[in-house]
Amino acid sequence: EPEVTQTPSHQVTQMGQEVILRCVPISNHLYFYWYRQILGQKVEFLVSFYNNEISEKSEIFDDQFSVERPDGSNFTLKIRSTKLEDSAMYFCASSRQGDYGYTFGSGTRLTVV
Amino acid sequence: KQEVTQIPAALSVPEGENLVLNCSFTDSAIYNLQWFRQDPGKGLTSLLLIQSSQREQTSGRLNASLDKSSGRSTLYIAASQPGDSATYLCAGRRSNDYKLSFGAGTTVTVRA
């Protein structure tokens, strides 16, 4: 069964530092997403990406965040100048097209200290 | 905006009992609805996907139904086992966008 792979599984960073979370979506999928889950809260949508551009983003996804697909396989989320409240589990997901369901990765647990 | 609610928040049953997990959504213009399983500290594993044109989907001991008119989906797990202990999340997608709106989940404990 194809998987979405996320690295690292855990990351601890100091407040104010930049972090890059990495994802390898399923190879024949066209749509890519980032979601996050703050401990004890709902999974929240951050951004969707299609055809090498952002197709939709939430209010959470402000100028502190950016996404990139630097090559044909990786999809990254960059968080500039991290804050304590950025501590969460970040999930990458991909889908083949709109009619199909999402496949999620196992997540990166980000802790900002 | 699609609001998704799951009741109850937690459920504890003895092994062998059937489980019924409820999900309600506010926007009837739902495109599809997906059920996920989440183990503590882990990722989201897709269980079932129901398109808006479908009434139900089945996979093994799992059956999910969708009623757009009432804004409800139900996940049935037959003959529960301790290995079914996890948090179950439902997530709906509206017709005019690609993002999923998640419920807060139902945490299930199956007692041996």
Write a brief caption for the model.
Chain A is mainly β and 113 residues long.
The most extensive contact between chains is:
A-B, 28 and 23 residues
Would you tell me the overall average pLDDT of chain A?
94
Mean pLDDT of chain B: 94
Biggest β-sheet strands, sense, barrel of chain A: 7 strands, mixed
Approximate helicity band of chain B: under 10%
Intertermini distance of chain A: 36 Å
Share of residues in strands of chain B: over 45%
Spans of chain B of 5+ residues with little confidence (pLDDT < 50)?
Answer: none
Shape of chain B: globular
**Poorly predicted parts of chain A:** none
Task: Please give a structural write-up.
The complex is a heterodimer of chains A (113) and B (112). Chain A is an all-beta fold and 113 residues long. Chain A has strands at residues 5-7, 10-13, 19-24, 31-37, 43-50, 53-57, 65-68, 75-79, 88-95, 103-104, 108-112. Chain B is an all-beta fold. Chain B is 0% helix and 60% strand. In chain B, strands 2, 4, 5, 9, 10 and 11 form a 6-stranded mixed sheet that branches. Chain B is globular, with a radius of gyration of 13 Å. The A-B interface holds A 31, 33, 35, 41-45, 48, 50, 55-56, 58, 89, 91, 93, 95, 98-107, 109 and B 31-32, 34, 36, 41-46, 49, 51, 89, 91, 97-105.
SSE topology:
The complex is a heterodimer of chains A (113) and B (112).
Chain A: E1 5-7, E2 10-13, E3 19-24, E4 31-37, E5 43-50, E6 53-57, E7 65-68, E8 75-79, E9 88-95, E10 103-104, E11 108-112
Parallel strand pairs in A: 2-11
Antiparallel strand pairs in A: 1-3, 3-8, 4-5, 4-9, 5-6, 7-8, 9-10, 9-11
Chain B: E1 4-7, E2 10-14, E3 19-25, E4 30-38, E5 44-51, E6 56-59, E7 62-67, E8 72-77, E9 86-94, E10 100-102, E11 106-111
Parallel strand pairs in B: 2-11
Antiparallel strand pairs in B: 1-3, 3-8, 4-5, 4-9, 6-7, 7-8, 9-10, 9-11
